[in-house]
Amino acid sequence: MVLPINHSDMIDDTSSHNSFTSPPTIPPSFRHIMTSNIASGMYPFQVDNAFVAKHSDILQHSFIVILRLRDMSEYPCQVYKYQYEFKSKIYIGTGWYNFCTAKNIGEGDRLQFSLALRGIIPVFNVQIERVDE
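Predicted structure:
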């Protein structure tokens, strides 16, 4: 289940007489609550569709992504892309299992991903919020 980051300040209320609001913006990061299948690392992880659409110029040309944690540990992962109709889906595959097992990712843990770059290689800075914390 993908949860968008709650940005309560996305409504344009600069004018009290203006009845229009700004269109919603795509946050520079996304959160995901881990299911048991994905947390086990046995299945690829699907990157949030809105996030992919926003950053397709970066993500569509890469076959590798690096998952980086606060302790600066890094996990290179292979990226799989599926294009159908006018939509793209991106999955993090090979390397995802190593990340999940090394960091003991469990069902219910919340992961927040934000995009950075190292040259042309996308880097996802990952923050882990444990379900039992």
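Summary: The two ends are 20 Å apart (CA to CA).
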